[in-house]
Amino acid sequence: MPHNKTTTHPKFSHLPLSTSGPVECALTGSALLNNPYFNKGVAFPTDERDTFGLTGLLPANVQSLEMQCKRAYQQFCTRSDELAKNTFMTSLKEQNEVLYFKLIHDHLKEIFSIIYTPTEGDAIQNYSRLFRRAEGCFLNINDVHRVHDDIARWGNPEDIDYIVVTDGEEILGIGDQGVGGILISVAKLVLTTVCAGIHPNRTLAVVLDCGTDNEELLNDDLYLGLKQPRARGKKYDDFVDTFVQAARKSFPRAYIHFEDFGLPNARRILDRYRPEIACFNDDVQGTGCVTLAAIMAGLHVSKLKLEDMRMVVFGSGTAGTGIADQVRDAIAADSGKSKEEAAKQIWCVDKPGLLLQSHGDKLTHAQIPYARRDSEWKGKDHSNLLDVIEAVKPHVLIGTSTQPKTFTKEIVERMSSHVERPLIFPLSNPTRLHEADPKDINEWSQGKALIATGSPFPPVTFNGEEYEIAECNNSTCFPGIGLGCVLSRTKLLSDKMLVAAVKALAAKSPALKDPKKGLLPDVVDVREISVCIAKAVIEQAVEEGLNMQKYIPTGELLEEWIREQMWDPVYRPLKLVSKETASKHAKGELGSAGVD
To answer: Which positions does UniProt annotate for a divalent metal cation binding (predicted)?
Structure first.
């Protein structure tokens, strides 16, 4: 939860991202009230109302942030459905960012699904119809020559820490949403602030509009994106590269987060830029990291070593192969095996059934390492999941297929007959696409299964015992990784930094103390989890010599250093400065509020 830092921190208040003490502001009057980053509304104290020319512009009664939050929550609750609540939150964010984030903090469990999956998916599908005000940076493939200038308008080189970019092709299990994908970039950045204290006015949401293959959008008069088929090949690659180079030139210290790119491109783009810049793909690495942490906790409960585990992945797209990669790399690190040898403990199933080497060109770049020799399956049926389960006898079954109800009673019973405590993770989002209901998995396995899901579910019971269902929520992982990368100013995000993040998350598993508890910590604890993950990431970056930030402390001081630089939804005192000498931040020219 946020810390009310009203006084300057004695050790780290000199840091550029320090959150102690007053904030410089050159705006006055209505301009101040119209800036969501500085605006306090009726919470402006009397002295600031006088200093900043707000008298007569606000009701007389000065109220606290807590009272504002109470009022905002009452308004939120009156909205008729989830999408209306999502729209209300968007409107609030455009008026008062501190109040917006405070409301989320105070009601995180309830509001999380409103500002992210599944409701954000509905908002994205209706983007052009609900559109009121542009937020984020819109780049389109027909104006590649403008990309550098369009990126540069968002600030000076030191002004942006975190960029989320999407091309809108594979959004939250609902596919190609074209320019509406900007909202997934916006939503991810909201989560980085909520979960890890990334400063909201030092982030940039980007959509790469490459056209769309969504016929419904192409035929919609209100659609706001390019009305042309989605670009592919060299033209697409050149556009992505132009964006990356422009972002690096304009904001050389910024961390780039790729989000919801399509299956043909997500892994390829990540592999292209990972050796060069600090970047991350949440669908590939975030999903893999959080799932691996749940697996590690589950293996601890079942008293099984990672190097002895067998895993089947059902749905071998971006998320599925990303999970496979993280598990493979962890097996290799723990056992000393090569990555090729470790991959043999993972069986990947997709539309054609078990992935085999004979599938040849039908395999994606990410699937190739997991394709089995055809000779291994000679005379065996590999076309359906049940037969694969029967042959492999896996300890872990991962679902990333977006095919509902595919983890059948027979599959769960068969797994439970082969191993003592099967790990069964139906991870597909949104909820309507999950492979099985945890209640059914629990019943069919006679309470033996250790379960994690992609969306929140209530606890389940068996023989009078209650078992918590862990949510493999990337938000417990990717914000902390990003925070560690931002604060260390790392040159790259290495494999070892990701492993350090996974171990830090797994160490917080409630199941380590009580097997009936969830395999992963609850999202309400995410701020503290992010501190632990960021600490592990920073320490590993320093060990590998990847950090560009100097004078990073160690031990307990490192945690203090991290916390001081995490933005909190509290009203800090404002200090009036002249426009002639003010920074872009003080003039309200950073973030979406400062761009015309």
So the answer is: 259-260, 283
pTM of the predicted model over 0.85: yes
In 3D space, the residue among 343, 354, 422 whose CA is nearest the CA of residue 384 turns out to be 354
CB 260 within 8 A of CB 166: yes
Taking only the tens place, the pLDDT of each residue in 446-474 is: 999 999 998 889 999 999 999 999 999 89
Binding residues: 259-260, 283, 429, 473
pLDDT: which is higher, 48 or 5: 48
Catalytic residue among 116, 127, 467, 571: 116
User: Longest C-alpha distance within the chain, in Å?
Assistant: 84
pLDDT tier for residue 151 given thresholds of 50, 70 and 90: very high
How confident is the model over 92-105, as pLDDT tens digits?
999 999 999 999 99
Active site residue 11: no
Which segments of 85-160 are extended strands (E)? 137-140
**How far, CA to CA in Å, does 13 sit from each of 7, 274, 407?**
9, 33, 53
Measured CA distances, 348 to 93, 253, 477 (Å): 42, 37, 24
Q: Is 116 a catalytic residue?
A: yes
Annotated binding site for (S)-malate: 429, 473
What is the set of domains in the chain, with CATH numbers?
Answer: 23-111+569-594 (1.20.1370.30), 126-262 (3.40.50.10380), 285-473 (3.40.50.720)
By DSSP bridging, strand 460-462 and strand 465-467 are antiparallel
